Amino acid sequence: MTTTLETERLLLRPFTMGDRDDLHHILSDPQVTATLLDVPEPFTLSDAADWIRYAQDGAVNGSLYAFAMVAKHDAVLLGWIDLEIDSEHRRGDMAYWLGQPYWGRGFASEAARRMVRFGFETLDLNRISAQCIASNIASARVMQKAGMRYEAALRHGTRKGEQFYDLHIYGMTRADYGEEHGT
Ligand SMILES: CC(C)(COP(=O)(O)OP(=O)(O)OC[C@H]1O[C@@H](n2cnc3c(N)ncnc32)[C@H](O)[C@@H]1OP(=O)(O)O)[C@@H](O)C(=O)NCCC(=O)NCCS
C-alpha cells in the first residue's frame, strides 16, 4: 500500500520495518495495552516485526489497511490506526491506539474521522464499526466523534488474563455518513 492520508496535524502512512523499535516501545507500556484486545504480553521486538509484516500483507490482499499515525511537524510515531475489511459485506472494523504521552490531545479523534472518510469514500465500504471494553470512555468518545453510534453490548465479550470484560460495539452505515456529509 502506498496510500498516505493527511489530517491537520497528522500523516497516516504505511508502516515500514523502520517503525519496529518505536512500535515495540509503545506496546511495551502496560497503560497502553490495558484496554487493548489481543496484544501479546510481553510484546517483543519479534511481535512488533510480525505486526508490521501483517500490516504490509493486509494492504497487499486488501484485508487490512493499517496506518502509522505520525506527527506532521516532527515525523514521530504516535500510534496505530487500522480498518480490517470484510469485503464480502463491505464492512470495516476500526482499531487504534497511541503512546501514552500523546493521549488527550485529540489525535485519535482526528485520525478516526479521516479513516471513516477513507473507508466510505475510497474503499466504498457500507459499514464501519469499532469496539471497546465498556469502561474505555476515551475510546467510546473517539468512535462517537468519528460519527459512530452505540449499538450493542457483548457481555463478557472478551477476556484479559483471568478477567472477563463487557464489550461495547459502535457503528455507522454509509447512509449515516452521507446524511452527515451530504454525499
Ligand atoms: C483511547 C485512545 C486511543 C484515545 O486517544 P486520544 O488521542 O487520547 O483521544 P482524544 O484526545 O481524541 O479524545 C477523545 C475524547 O475522549 C475524551 N477522553 C480522553 N481521555 C479520557 C478519559 N481518560 N476519560 C474520559 N474521557 C476521556 C476526550 O476528552 C475526548 O472527548 P471530547 O473531545 O468530547 O472532550 C488512547 O487513550 C489510547 O491509545 N488508549 C490505549 C489503547 C486503547 O484503549 N485503544 C482503543 C481500544 S478500543
What is this entry, summarized?
The chain is α+β, with helices and mostly antiparallel strands and 183 residues long. Helix content is 33%, strand content 34%. The chain has one domain (5-181): Gcn5-related N-acetyltransferase (GNAT) (Aminopeptidase, 3-Layer(aba) Sandwich), CATH 3.40.630.30.
> Helical residue percent?
25-40%
Mean pLDDT: 96
Q: Shape from CA axes?
A: globular
Give the terminus-to-terminus CA distance. 26 Å
The CATH architecture: 3-Layer(aba) Sandwich
According to CATH, the fold-level topology is: Aminopeptidase
Going by helix content, strand content and strand pairing, the class is alpha+beta
Name of the CATH first level = Alpha Beta
- Give me the side-by-side strand order of the main sheet: 1-2-3-4-5-6-8-7
Summed up, the domain count is 1
**How would a textbook summarize the main sheet?**
8 strands, mixed
Which regions contain 5 or more consecutive residues with pLDDT less than 50?
Answer: none
H and E order: EEHHHEEEHEHEEH
What's the count of strands? 8
CATH superfamily: Gcn5-related N-acetyltransferase (GNAT)
Bound molecules: coenzyme A
Helix run count: 6
Radius of gyration: 16 Å
